[in-house]
Amino acid sequence: MGKVALALLGPTASGKSALALHLADRLELEIVSVDAGQVYRGLDIGTAKPSAAERRRVPHHLLDLVEPTEAYSAGRFRADAIAAVREVLARGRLPLLVGGTMLYYRALAHGIDALPAADAVLRAEIEREAARAGWPALHAELARVDPQTARRLEPNDAQRIQRALEVYRASGKPLSALHSAPRQPLPFVLASCALIPADRARLHRRIAERFERMLALGLLDELRGLRERHALHPALPSMRSVGYRQAWAFLEGAYGVAEMRDKALAATRQLAKRQLTWLRAMRFDAVLDPFAPDASERFCGLAQERAREGRAA
């Protein structure tokens, strides 16, 4: 067995960060974030980004990589994560990948298709067309050139429709037909653990409690400050993040605080549902119920065993 990196995946509010910090009390490890929101500078409260004290306690990687006006891709994540894991291993420490962005984890574990790079000109052109005709019209266009991709997208899924059309216009090939070149194997072994709560109602309560904490910590003021410092608009990937999207609409006067809270909670529950669907479709070395009394001990046992295997390799 080669060098080992541990991965801890789970839905939002399932206690991943707490488990990771608990393990850090037992093993010399560094955390590599697998979170699409935490890569953005300034998106701290709404992404539950580790605090300064937590970062002093345990080194964290792949946080605050880009401005909220920029894009960040699964392909870039894979390259950044591999580099971070290699650096941690070179220091003789255990890399622990922690997060809930399943697309990023799948890209790391299984590789990604070789797709054209993002094209700002094409994206702007597609956005102008959407402003004139609406995303359902562009979805209909996508259905003509790439029916397989269009079938799995909702007519208002702006981000994915835009990317699929961008790929087609840049390459002349539908997204569904682009297959990767032989994928490079990872230079380490991934030992993975999924957190799948048996009590969905308890997860929903934790989601509600966490969002209340975010509001109390100043989520709305954080977004106001971001809007003052950056040329943001609601179609940016950073601003489509759950919580920020609903806070943006509130600041624009679309609805009041109570409705914002309801919409944010509904969107977060839907996110958790999607994350669980991903988790159940993937293979893991271990699956734990994060709310079980022995979850911490079982996870620590798995991590210690894998760390020993890595040192012995």
What is the structure about, briefly put?
The protein has helices spanning 16-24, 52-57, 74-90, 102-110, 120-133, 135-145, 147-151, 158-171, 200-217, 219-229, 244-251, 257-281, 295-312, and strands at residues 4-9, 29-34, 60-61, 94-99, 189-195, 286-288. By secondary structure, it is an alpha/beta fold.
Which structural traits does this protein have?
313 residues, Rossmann fold, 2 domains, Histone, subunit A, alpha/beta, 53% helix
Plain-language structure description:
With 313 residues, the protein is α/β, with parallel strands linked by helices. The protein folds into 2 domains: 4-113 and 188-312, 3-Layer(aba) Sandwich (Rossmann fold), CATH 3.40.50.300; 120-174, Orthogonal Bundle (Histone, subunit A), CATH 1.10.20.140. Helix content is 53%, strand content 10%. The chain has helices spanning 16-24, 52-57, 74-90, 102-110, 120-133, 135-145, 147-151, 158-171, 200-217, 219-229, 244-251, 257-281, 295-312, and strands at 4-9, 29-34, 60-61, 94-99, 189-195, 286-288. It has a 6-stranded parallel sheet, sandwiched between helices.
Topology, element by element:
Blueprint: E1 4-9, H1 16-24, E2 29-34, H2 52-57, E3 60-61, H3 74-90, E4 94-99, H4 102-110, H5 120-133, H6 135-145, H7 147-151, H8 158-171, E5 189-195, H9 200-217, H10 219-229, H11 244-251, H12 257-281, E6 286-288, H13 295-312
Helix pairs in contact: 3-4, 5-6, 5-8, 6-8, 9-12, 10-11, 11-12
